[in-house]
Amino acid sequence: MRSQLIRGHRVVEDEFAVVSLPEGADPASAPLPEGPVIVPLAVWSARREELLSREHAVGVQLSPTDVPSTLAEDLARLAVVAVHFPKFADGRGYSIAYQFRRRLGYRGELRAVGDVQRDQLYYLSRSGFDAFLIKEGHDAQAALASLHDFNATYQAAADGRLPRFRAAPPAREAAGG
Amino acid sequence: MYRYDSIDRQVVDERVAQYRDQTRRFLAGELSDDDFRPLRLQNGLYIQRQGPMLRVAIPYGMLSSTQLRRLAAIARTYDRGYGHFTTRQNMQFNHPRLEDVPQILAELAEVEMHAIQTSGNCIRNTTTDQFAGVAPDEHVDPRALAEILRQWSTLHPEFAYLPRKFKIAFNGADVDRAATLVQDIGFWAVRDARGELGLKVIVGGGLGRTPIIGSVIREFLPWQEMLTYTEAVLRVYNLHGRRDNLYKARIKILVKALGPEEFARQVEAEWQHLRGSEATIPEHELARVSAFFADPPYESLSDEDAAYEKAVADSRAFSLWAGRSVHAHKRPGYAAVTLSLKPHGLPPGDASADQMDVVVGLADRYSFGELRVTHEQNLVLADVRKRDLHALWLAAREAGLATPNRGLLTNIICCPGGDFCSLANAKSIPIATAIQEKFDDLDWLHDIGELDLNISGCMNSCGHHHIGHIGILGVDKHGSEWYQVSIGGRQGKDAALGEVIGPSFAATEVPGVIEKLVETYVEHRREGELFVDTAQRIGIAPFKAGIHGVEREIVHA
Fold first, then answer.
1. Nearest CA in chain A to B23
2. Where are the alpha helices (DSSP H) in A36-91?
3. In this prediction, what percent of chain A has a pLDDT beyond 90?
4. Options 3.40.50.300, 3.90.480.20, 3.40.50.2000, 3.20.20.450; CATH of B306-398
5. ipTM of the complex
6. What value does the mean pLDDT take over residues A50-57?
7. A165 touches chain B (CB under 8 A)
8. CB contact under 8 A, A89 and B161
9. CATH classification of B413-556, choosing from 3.40.50.2000, 3.40.50.460, 3.30.413.10, 1.10.10.10?
10. pLDDT tens digit sequence for B78-91
11. Contact B155 A150 (CB under 8 A)
């Protein structure tokens, strides 16, 4: 099963080709395929004008060590910001997503890629991601259910939910048990 | 104590459903071992030497008798009839079956308990003073703030996959009984000159391989900003903490590398975006949560109780116990009582289901149906009338809960060690029980006086050996178990790290080494001086000299 994209709570066709940059490769010389592409931040920085002059939509992918504010001036021009999770347990991408949504005010597609599986979806979506490229070999259709693991929440996050103490008070229950 | 409302209830119920499905998928082969590991860890389930170990959260150590009764029932039904209280005021079950865990969690949820974030690289159970709310030296009862922090940290989406585990503790009294200087964040609840409530913020303390005393990064944080400031600390840590080396991933390493001033500067810069936001705690929330920690309906009593005084005078055994186990209380005529889980010769911190049921009865009868778990792995009944102390003692003694050793050498703080834990280099419980047997003479024990002895089976330091007056650390040398001994550590506001006294010892040598350390102390002590104070005054050389004797005796024996 190849990687499948979840967007808008549905499994959809991914129209973007991903350009990867092998270790040590020159960002200026990476081949760009026709059609919409997602490129690494280094390629974007090296070939910004060229990418913007194409007719196709363009997205940028960040690694966990990239700094979101690098893209602050360009966010309106990007169709996708993708954040790479090298490992399930590497949680830097959650704080990166927070910065895009809450600090930089980015409103476009924020896509989690890499080691992305269903049991992360709830936290990813609360942190501001709205698209998820489910790792190869995992069932994206089945994963949809995990977006709704919890309806009750305690804290504010980048999904716009308020802390419990700012929301309407819950129904009181009789003491007991 | 805090009671769940519909939101709290829904969170734990949804968690049980989520974990039930994750377990089902794991057992069906849809989730690999590697992918299931971080999920089960965030629900407190380790896979250990003897199979799974489940750690249940006891927020800031507070339990109702209803909850303890349920823990006893779970111990009987799903384990071997006992549980283990940990240094993080939690309970561990050492032998549940993996497939039973979702059901155990469902039964815990019925009594407002869970195992959320009791393990894994996330924000762990918040801890505090076992005498919170009743201690005469307390300025601020920190439990409402601890509960607000518990809720905020529960299932926080951004901070579930931190570089490493993250521990927070609160203190609100003169004496720091919550080891706040060796936490990832230590909060001291304080009042400023105008009487406003706030927090002194200490970060980057910790034990483990690199023991460090925490640094104050803010002298006074208005309480309303507790969550925004914590969020700023965690965001800086999540983005910049090391992830390349397990042993350098705690926040203390980041704070040390940047320097506390630079770390504080980065936190303050992040916090400027967050202060005064929707996460700032409103007055009505503190009021709502504080109401759960209001005083129970105390009686107006005289502080002197003639029957109690007479019982102390009449019974040496009772007086020995009372001297160690009865603690001052803010209300006249009341006392807080330690029930010892350190009987000589049994694993420290263990309680049988029958003992738990006895404590349930005692809490209901004598202490408003509540109790606390201490980080020293004992239980506390916090609100006992002095006139009830003798009857309480008789019942506790019959259940093996009245060893008069609180604060003494045999009140050993001890991790589960190599008998249970797959991380351990060496066993710790047999060392503890051997030492307890060596010091079984109560008169001698009381003559030695206050002495904290801590044992950890490995550098993860769950037994807090660095801050024991005597600390014992299990080490692995060429596949066999050895023990390093340190002296001079202490907990509290003047927390200090112990100094290793020499070579490592074999398990059989350890009780003799401890005996020699105690003899050196007795020889040098001044009137009323504690072991740790003598050690500080005379340094480690005389203790080392004493130890050399024991080595020779053993070698030539």
1. A119
2. 41-46, 48-53
3. 83
4. 3.90.480.20
5. 0.94
6. 94
7. yes
8. yes
9. 3.30.413.10
10. 999 999 999 888 99
11. yes
